[in-house]
Specification:
It is globular, with a radius of gyration of 21 Å. It has two domains: 231 residues, Rossmann fold, CATH 3.40.50; 57 residues, no CATH class. It is α/β, with parallel strands linked by helices and 308 residues long. A six-stranded parallel sheet has the order 3-2-4-1-5-6, with helices on both faces. The N and C termini lie close together (12 Å).
């Protein structure tokens, strides 16, 4: 059975999740688990909108500054680390609060880790040699036949479903369902929303502020330390546009506008993901209200929720 309920505060980038999460500290003895794939990188603070030093000193945070730019950090690694953080937070008698906008991180944590059954390497190589010869439509047909729960998703996912079903004797959907049953948390979702024009305005203001605060100089320092321009951490929105400027690909005056456009597009994809991928009850709140007011509403709803 899945673990105890945990508040999971989600929403698109720029909507104000950090402010609301920090305001919740007035109501709970809590620690924050950041589910943000950009904030795991050290020395990239401004462009990834990490919490201020004041808030970091007041509220323990987990999931920040884990790896150097250039290193990879996967959703699976996050789920493993977050499981350990949440267990530690609970052991200290505090409430873990997951906050972030990276859907894959949240899914990996909530649905549990897929513990792969033993698959013989020689058999895997032989099967891969066969599946690599199949056309995409044929791969999907085989995957659907072997796994009734196969939901599509491209060539690699179809090959993976065929491999697990044939070599383990059970479909991939079975192992994933098992992972969900033994998952670390039962999510109690709070989704922050805004009218799109308001969100767009906030994104534009934040992009201008990031440039003014020194985002470009921050990226330049990381490049000077030897990180490759397209390395993990520097390939994200904000850092990417700063790199383009530093390499002569755009003017400094155009950086904030480019970041704004890219961030708006990303926020739209996040909104779509949160509308369709969150399973279970979701409390949606209008983020035009002050963070302190939203925190009071969230805390009251948490206290009033049915006992699990």
């Amino acid at each position: 059975m899945a673990g105890a309920s945990v508040p999971v505060l989600v929403g698109p980038t720029g909507i104000g999740k950090t402010a609301v999460a920090c305001a919740l500290a007035a109501h709970w003895e809590m620690e924050i688990v950041s589910a943000d794939s950009r904030q795991v990188y050290r020395r990239l603070d401004i462009g990834t909108a990490k919490p201020s030093k004041k808030w970091l000193a007041r509220i323990p945070h987990h999931g920040l500054d884990l790896v150097n730019p250039g290193e990879r950090y996967s959703a699976g690694k996050f789920a493993r680390d977050a499981t350990r953080w949440i267990e530690g937070i609970r052991a200290r008698g505090h409430l873990p609060v997951v906050v972030g906008g990276t859907g894959l991180y949240i899914r990996a944590l909530v649905e549990g880790l897929f513990a792969e059954p033993p698959l013989a390497p020689a058999d895997r190589r032989q099967l891969e040699a066969w599946t690599s010869t199949l056309a995409p439509a044929e791969l999907v047909r085989w995957a659907s036949r072997l796994d009734p729960g196969f939901a599509g998703g491209g060539r690699q996912r179809a090959m993976r479903s065929i491999e697990v079903a044939l070599l383990s004797g059970r479909p991939l959907s079975f192992w994933q369902a098992h992972a969900r049953r033994v998952g670390t948390v039962t999510p109690w979702y709070v989704l922050l929303t805004l009218p799109r024009p308001v969100l767009h305005q906030r994104i534009a203001l934040r992009a201008e502020e990031m440039v003014q605060r020194g985002m470009i100089e921050e990226v330049a320092a990381v490049l000077a330390e030897g990180a490759a321009p397209g390395a993990p951490g520097l390939d994200a929105i904000g850092m990417r546009e700063a790199v383009e400027y530093l390499q002569g690909g755009r003017s400094r005056d155009s950086v904030a506008e480019a970041v704004t456009i890219s961030t708006r597009q990303y926020a739209k994809r996040q909104e779509t993901w949160f509308r369709h991928q969150l399973e279970g009850p979701v409390m949606a709140l209008d983020a035009t209200r002050p963070a302190e007011e939203l925190a009071a509403v969230i805390a009251a709803a948490w206290d009033a929720r049915p006992a699990s």
